[in-house]
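User: My instructor asked us to take a sequence, write out its structure as tokens, and then describe one feature of it. I'm not sure where to start. Here is the sequence I was given:
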Amino acid sequence: MMSHLINIVSVWTIPAIIFITLFYANIKGVKVFDVFVDGAKEGFDTAIKLIPFLVAMLVGISLFRRSGAMDIFINMLAPVFDYFGVPTDILPIAIMRPISGSSVLAITAEILNNNGPDSLMGRIASTMIGSTETTFYVLTLYFGSVGINKIRHALTVGLLADLAGIITAIYVCMKIFG
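Assistant: Let's start with the prediction itself. The structure tokens for your sequence are:
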């Protein structure tokens, strides 16, 4: 009975919110279609402004990976991970997560396919993704779109938060599942 009720609520929540919003806007005299079109125009203008920042970010990610810099970082960090008994196959996730979400999803998919989602590596990889953010991407996209040039403190805090998320994900997964 309870699962049936939850299923009904989950199916109808979003349509109900949309209907209530449209109904309320109609009562207030808001021309919903005109406001929607204006919002779409703003979204398009924002997308046009963001294209140079996205291209620059994609070029930077490609250069980082193809130049061998990622492999250098992996080789530098591997002894530390080995010392603590952490699987080194998750190193690419730790390095790439602040830079690119899509490449990390591809790396994680490969780890999950090779080791399984219930393996220690699968759990660490999944937890790391949920515990960290694509810091460089967020700063490039959002700060660039509004014209903020001084990102020094935001970058430092973002990378420290990523490091904390990575360390915590590894520690918790090793303690619980290792």
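For the description part of your assignment, you could build on this observation: DSSP finds eight helices and no strands in the chain. Try explaining in your own words what that tells you about the chain.
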